[in-house]
Amino acid sequence: MRDKLKIAIIPSTTRPGRFADKPMAWIKAMIEARPDMEATVVDLRDHPLPFFDETAPLSMKPAANAAAQHWDATLAGFDGFVVVLAEYNHSVPGVLKNALDYGFEGWKHKPMGAVAYGGSGGSRSLEHLRLIAINLRMVAVGGAVHIGGADFMGAIKGGDLPEHLDPSAKGLLDEVAWWARASRDKRSAATAQAAE
Fold first, then answer.
1. Per-residue pLDDT band at 1 (split at 50, 70, 90)
2. What is the largest CA-CA distance in the chain?
3. How many structural domains does the chain have?
4. Is residue 159 within 8 Å of 129, Cβ to Cβ?
5. What is the pLDDT of residue 170?
6. SS (H, E, C) the chain
7. In angstroms, rounded to a whole number, what is the distance separating the alpha carbons of residues 39 and 16?
8. Cβ-proximal residues to 81 (8 Å cutoff; 6+ apart), any chain
9. Which of 90, 146, 159, 192 could pair covalently with 121 via S-S, beta carbons 3.0-4.6 A apart?
């Protein structure tokens, strides 16, 4: 079994000039500094999906759309996820919600954490993301990074993310790693048992 956990970093927005690129690079560097994880950015810009129009929820029936099948297969290759989460009108961006809806097997039984940002540190958006993740049979980890207030405004104006956010990031990644390893081991055992 491979040792390093494969973690996907998913920016929640595709708009031009998005802020997400700054915290995305920051959390990617933190993951790559760890001996137990490797990071891959999975950009929704590279996975254009139609608005969800399947005939049934994907928990009941696999997607018919080829782009959706490719998306779920991409997700399947990861042990856990860190979403770089914007807050749009007190909730998750629509492009992220659509991508969440178009995955199921690829999300299932894996941890999801977030680096959230916005005026309130993305707290309202993260609350919604956690509820969605639970419904997708994921583990919504309790740790998170919230970039808000002066930290958010300073970073938007070109400043770096402040070092006082580092402990929150470490806590987030420690939780994602714990659950990713536990769930990977359990999925492997279930696969082996089914093959017997």
1. very low
2. 58
3. 1
4. no
5. 98
6. CCCCEEEEEEECCCCCCCCCHHHHHHHHHHHHCCCCEEEEECCHHHCCCCCCCCCCCCCCCCCCCHHHHHHHHHHHCCCEEEEEECCECCECCHHHHHHHHCCCCCCCCCEEEEEEECCCCCHHHHHHHHHHHHHCCCEEEEEEEEECHHHHHHHHCCCCCCHHHHHHHHHHHHHHHHHHHHHHHHHHHHHHHHHC
7. 23
8. 7, 8, 9, 10, 75, 107, 110, 111, 112, 113, 138, 176
9. 146
Q: What CATH code is carried by the domain that includes residue 52? A: 3.40.50.360
How far apart are alpha carbons 131 and 134 in whole angstroms?
5
Q: Is 41 exposed, middle or buried (0-12, 13-18, 19+ CB in 10 A)?
A: middle
% of the chain with per-residue pLDDT over 90 = 88
- pTM for this predicted structure: 0.94
**Sign of dihedral through CA atoms 107, 126, 9, 35?**
negative
For 33, the domain range is 5-195
Quick one: pLDDT at residue 188? Answer: 77
pLDDT tens digit sequence for 138-160? 999 999 999 999 999 999 999 99
Please give the average per-residue pLDDT across 163-184, as a whole number. 97
